[in-house]
Design a protein that fits this description.
CATH class of the largest domain: Alpha Beta
Strand content: 5-15%
Distance between the termini: 53 Å
Largest sheet: 6 strands, mixed
Strand order of the largest sheet: 1-2-10-7-8-9
Helix content: 40-55%
Number of domains: 2
Structural class: alpha/beta
Number of strands: 10
Order of helices and strands: HEHEHEHEHEHEHEHEHEHHEHH
C-alpha cells in the first residue's frame, strides 16, 4: 500500500478526533432511539429509556470495537504495519471486527484464541474465516492473571516482525488510551443526542468502552458498568484508563470513582440475563447476546426495579453489538432450550 493510498483511508479530521488520526471504518454517529415499550414494562415514563445503537456501526455486522480500531488501525498504518494480530476467546467480537478491519485495509491478520477449537465453527468464527484471518488456538493460562492474552499477542507480533512481516499488536479489546478515544467520540455524540443524559449502562470487560465514555463525559457518576469476565481490580483499571484517555484527548481528568455492578455468575443471574434478552426482543425487537449486552440489560432492569435509577434525565443503554455470538452453536442452543414451551 502506497503512502497516498494510506492517506485516502484516513477520515477527515474533526473536533471529535482531538488531534489524533483515524481511519474511517464505522457508520457514525450511531443513532439513539427511544425504548418506550420496554420503559412501560419497567414502569418508566415514555422518553426516559433510550438505546445508543453501536450495534449499527456497520463493519462486520457492527459492534463497539470498530470505534477503537479506527484509531488503532490509523496508528498501525502510520508505523508501516502490514499485518495485525490480536486475541480473545473463540466467539470474540473484537477479533471478528479486527479481522474485518484488516481485510478492508488490505492488511494480514492473525487471531489467537484461548482454548481448543470447536468441532464445528459457528457465529463469529464463521466470519473470522470469511475475512481470511489466520486462526491459531493457544493455551493462554489463567484468565485472571495480569497480561492474560496480551502477552501472547505481543509474542506473536515479535515473531512476525522478526520474520520480516511488519506487524502491529492490537491489545485485547483495543483497550488502551488511543483505542478508548473511540468512546470519547461516542460520549461527544451522546452529549449532542441526549442533552439531559443522566446515566449510561455499558459492559465493563477489557474496560476500553467504559473508560472512554467516562473520559468523554468527564464524570464517573454518568456511567454504570456491568462486569464481564473475571478481571481483577476492575474499578482501578477503569479509573486509570479513563484518566489516561482524558489526558490523551486534552480533557480534564474525570470526577468521581468508577461504578461497576458485579454479577455473581449464579443460575439466578443466568435467569435474569435470559429475561433481559427476551424482554428486549419482545418489547423492542432488539437483539441482545448472553455474554455482553444481555448482562448489561439485566443490570439496567435490576436497577430500575430496585429504584436505583436517577430520578430525572434520560437513561441510555449502550448496545455494543455481539449479535453473531448469539448465533454460535452453544449460545443459540442455550437460548432455545432455556426459553422452552413455557416462555413461548
Amino acid at each position: 500500500m502506497t503512502l497516498a493510498a494510506e492517506h485516502r483511508l484516513l477520515a477527515p479530521p474533526d473536533e471529535y478526533d482531538f488531534g489524533h488520526r483515524r481511519v474511517s471504518l464505522a457508520h457514525l454517529p450511531t443513532p439513539v432511539e427511544p425504548m418506550d415499550r420496554l420503559a412501560d414494562a419497567l414502569g418508566l415514563p415514555a422518553g426516559r429509556l433510550l438505546v445508543k445503537r453501536d450495534d449499527a456501526t456497520g463493519l462486520a455486522m457492527g459492534g463497539n470495537k470498530v470505534r477503537k480500531l479506527e484509531y488503532l488501525c490509523a496508528d498501525a498504518l502510520a508505523h508501516g504495519a502490514r499485518h495485525l494480530v490480536t486475541a480473545g476467546l473463540g466467539q470474540s467480537n473484537h477479533s471478528r471486527q479486527t479481522a474485518a478491519a484488516a481485510a478492508k485495509l488490505g492488511l494480514g491478520c492473525t487471531l489467537l484464541f484461548d482454548g481448543e477449537p470447536p468441532s464445528i465453527f459457528s457465529g463469529n468464527l464463521v466470519l473470522d474465516t470469511l475475512f481470511g484471518a489466520e486462526i491459531r488456538w493457544i493455551d493462554a493460562g489463567d484468565p485472571a492473571a495480569p497480561g492474560y492474552l496480551d502477552k501472547d499477542v505481543q509474542a506473536e507480533a515479535d515473531r512476525l516482525n522478526a520474520a520480516g512481516i511488519p506487524t502491529y499488536p492490537v491489545v485485547v479489546g483495543g483497550s488502551v488510551p488511543l483505542g478508548a478515544l473511540g468512546y470519547v467520540r461516542a460520549a461527544c455524540e451522546l452529549r449532542e443526542q441526549v442533552p439531559d443524559l443522566a446515566l449510561v449502562f455499558c459492559p465493563s470487560g477489557s474496560v476500553g468502552t467504559h473508560g472512554g465514555l467516562v473520559a468523554g463525559l468527564g464524570d464517573h457518576d454518568l456511567v454504570q458498568g456491568v462486569r464481564i469476565g473475571v478481571r481483577q481490580h476492575l474499578e482501578e483499571q477503569i479509573e486509570r484508563l479513563a484518566a489516561d484517555t482524558a489526558a490523551l484527548a486534552g480533557l480534564p481528568s474525570p470526577r468521581g470513582r468508577a461504578h461497576v455492578v458485579d454479577p455473581d455468575g449464579s443460575e439466578a443471574h443466568a435467569a435474569s440475563t435470559l429475561e433481559a434478552i427476551t424482554l428486549a426482543a419482545r418489547t423492542e425487537g432488539l437483539v441482545l447476546d448472553p455474554i455482553y449486552t444481555g448482562k448489561v440489560m439485566a443490570g439496567l432492569i435490576a436497577a430500575s426495579r430496585r429504584g436505583g435509577l436517577p430520578s430525572e434525565g434520560s437513561i441510555v443503554f449502550l448496545h455494543t453489538g455481539g449479535i453473531p455470538g448469539l448465533l454460535a452453536n452453544e449460545h443459540a442452543q442455550w437460548l432455545v432450550e432455556a426459553l422452552g414451551e413455557g416462555h413461548r
